[in-house]
Write a structure and sequence with these properties.
Length: 185
């Protein structure tokens, strides 16, 4: 990962400490996302919930190195503005495409197939988003959902679906706030 991206990550982390509503993933989660994207060679990544772009910087760095792209969806203007600044600071504006809108409205409009999905939207929307995005995932797509431990109570329907639908091999990894990881059976 180049120095410019590393500086942007540090700036996003600083921004998070002064803006209480930034909802950034912890650094260890960002590093984990980068590792997963690099290890799988993910080229077409989808992130639901951009916030200020911290996780997007990690995913975008991996996408750039994999000669791919990151599409990230965010509904709030102020978060899009902050994320855009961080992506430009990192030199990732050609690798990362921000789509404005509610994920449940945007997902049906997205074209192409995604080989890595990161979900970090309102917890009660996880299951609806997952069901909408399923047809847009490659057969071997990796799914990562944030907050599976810290907010597990708020996303029980999603967690239950991922473990009992018969469609996925799933596990909850105790990194950061807890990451549910899954691949199709």
């Amino acid at each position: 990962m180049n120095e410019r991206i590393q500086r942007a990550i540090l700036e996003a982390e600083r921004y998070s400490t002064t803006h209480h509503d930034s909802y950034s993933v912890p650094r260890e989660t960002g590093e984990f996302l980068y590792l997963l994207a690099k290890a799988t060679g993910a080229k077409n990544i989808l992130e639901l919930g951009t916030s200020i772009g911290h996780s997007g910087l990690w995913l975008g760095a991996a996408a750039q190195e994999n000669k791919g792209t990151l599409t990230t969806v965010e509904a709030l203007d102020e978060k899009i503005l902050a994320a855009s600044r961080h992506f430009q600071m990192a030199g990732l504006e050609k690798t990362i495409k921000i789509v404005k809108g509610n994920a449940k409205t945007i997902i049906p409009k997205l074209s192409g197939k995604f080989d890595l999905l990161f979900i970090d939207v309102w917890k009660e929307d996880y299951l609806a988003c997952m069901k909408l995005v399923e047809p847009k995932l490659t057969k071997s797509a990796l799914i990562v959902a944030d907050n599976a431990i810290s907010h597990g109570e708020d996303m029980q329907d999603f967690i239950k679906y991922m473990f009992t639908s018969g469609k996925y091999f799933s596990s909850i990894i105790p990194i950061g706030t807890g990451e549910l990881m899954a691949v199709r059976k």
